[in-house]
Structure formats: structure tokens, C-alpha cells
Amino acid sequence: MKKDKSVIVIVSLVLINVLFIAGIIALRLRIPQRAIRKIQSRLDNSVTIQEEKVDIENLDKPFNIIYLADTHVVLCDDRDEDVREKSDTRYLEFIVDSKSSDENFTQTMKYIRESKPDLVIFGGDILDSATYEAIEFLQKELDSLDCPYIYLTGNHDFEYGLEYFSDVAYSEYLPRLINITDIDKGYELMEFDSFVVLALDDAGNQLTPDVTEGIKKAEETGKPVIVATHVPFVPFEEKDALVQKSNEVWGGMDSGDSRTLMGYGGIMPNGDTQEMIKFIAKDDSPVKLVLSGHVHFYHKDLLNRDIYQVITGAGYQRNLLKITLY
Question: Quick one: how far is CA 84 from the chain centroid?
Fold first, then answer.
């Protein structure tokens, strides 16, 4: 009996020590838990998809378009030493789920390839700056696509340091994208059997003079038109919801107007932007849908009567739009 009591005492002491050590480990688990959460975050490769459907007359079979914008890929090597410091700062701004913008872009492109769309529209600010390393990375990803694509330039794609929509930006850094886009002419028109896509360039929240030529050519096809642009339009009728949301995210003008949107209630439209607004707003407009990005949040609103504008969320957060024409 005495021996049994000794065994019990020993076992009890062992259990007490085990519990004490376990308690210490439990207290220290906060650091491993953070590490675990970081690992889980890096393993999260999900893509957020907003889906839209648009009825197009005389379409033989469904046609799938993916619209992606604002991925803000930041990569910079010794060839662009002048902007290395800025790139390092911007790199940190676009880390999501413990992954850099180029890693999230790669994951999004993997989803796009697997979904086998009929067309991909890159809606601007895919690059954060026109550095050689970022362009080469992008070119490799674009070459992996098995479908046609349109590449719009946003307000960052050919930015370079302090050169932002400047003559130098247009003459020296936009040409670096020559193998990726020809949108520098102001628009790109891609025609299919039953519809056309009219992609628009913008410079400082305004459309360029060539937009009138794009409108004319789109109308001459006699087909429904899908419009794609980087900067959203202020809705022509019920503008308050989008303007308010834009101002909450980016801050508005003293007048209460948006400083990130094109049109009345945003950046006052120049003559070329007005021509596009008139084209969309007219009673017999062939426009069926407007796609845009720039503001980094998802939003859907009527521009005019039954013409919707759909804004995609930020691509660096792995957001995209999937549009099915049927």
C-alpha cells in the first residue's frame, strides 16, 4: 500500500510538471498562431469573382469575357535604379494575404487560364510603373493566354517616378509597352460576329481626341457595343451612390464632386469625353454595357436607362469581373 502511494505521488508530480510545461507552451502559442495564420494566408489563393450576364441579339453561343484591372504589379531591378526607392515603397502597399502584387497576379492569371474565357480585357493599372522587370514579367504572363486580349493603359501603367501623363511619360515610357498594347492611339476596337468591344484610353480622367473615330467605327459595324475604360463615368442620372462611395474611399473635391470619376459630378468632361457620354446616353445607343476599374471597389449602377456600368474591385486583391454574353 505504501509503495502504491509512492507511485501515486510520483505520477502526480509528473502530471503537475506536464501541466505546468503545457501551460507555458500555451502562453507562448500566440507567436506560432500568428505564424500559422500567415501560412494560412499565403495558402489562400481564392479569386473573388463578380458575374454579369448581357443579352446580345444573334449570338450563336455564350461568349465569356474576363475584365481585370488595378493589379499594380511592382517589380524593379537595376535597370531602373532611378525609381528603385519608390518601387520598394509601392511594393509594400500592395501586399495582400502575405503575397506581393506579382504573386497575386500570377494566381489570378492561373484562374483565368483555367476558366478558358473567349476574351480577356486588362482594364488599366495592371502595372504600377513601366519598369523593365515588371513589363517582362507581364509579357510572360500574357504569352500564357490561349485567347485574345485587350490591354488598356491606366494612370499607372506608363508612370515612371515623377513622370505621370507627361510628355516624357508618353515619349519614353509608354513605348516600353509596345508589345503589350496599341491603345496609345486612343482606342481599340475588336470586332466579333455579333458584337464589338470598344476599349478607350484615358489621360488624367479624360478621353483622348481619337475617341470620336472609335465611336464612328463602332457605329458603322451596326452591332451591339461593349465599352471598356479604366476610369468610370459618373452615372448620368442617379449619380449620388457612386460619387459618395468614391469620395469615402478617395476623398472628394470641396464641391462634393468626385475627383476619381469622369463626367458631370466628377472631373468636368472635356469635349472628347462629352462625345462618349453623348454616345452612351442617346436613345438609340448600341452600347450594352460599360466596364471600368480605377477606384479599387466593386460597384454596379445604371449609367443611363438600361445601360449598366460595372466597376471591378482591385485586382491586386484578386478581384475580377466575369461577363457572359448570351
Answer: 23
Give the three cell numbers for residue 13: 508530480
CB atoms within 10 A of CB 172: 14
**How far is Cα 287 from Cα 281, in angstroms, rounded to an integer?**
9
* 194 vs 60: CA distance, rounded Å: 8
Q: If we measure between CA atoms, which residue out of 116, 104, 151, 128 comes closest to residue 318?
A: 104
Over residues 6-27, the pLDDT tens digits come to 544 455 566 566 556 655 555 5
Q: In whole angstroms, how far apart are CA 161 and each of 103, 164, 222, 261? A: 23, 8, 43, 24
Contacts of 289 (CB under 8 A, 6+ apart): 52, 54, 226, 227, 307, 308, 309, 310, 323
User: Is residue 260 over pLDDT 90?
Assistant: yes
Contact 97, 37 (CB under 8 A): no
pLDDT, tens only, 290-319: 999 999 999 999 998 889 999 999 999 999
So what's the pLDDT on residue 72?
98
pLDDT exceeds cutoff 70 at 34:
no
SS3 120: strand
**Is the distance from CB of 226 to CB of 65 less than 8 angstroms?**
yes
Contact 230/156 with Cβ under 8 angstroms? no
Place of cell 489570378: 108
Cell triple for 117? 474565357
Residue 67's DSSP bridge partners are 121, 321
Of all residues in the chain, the percent with pLDDT exceeding 70 is 86
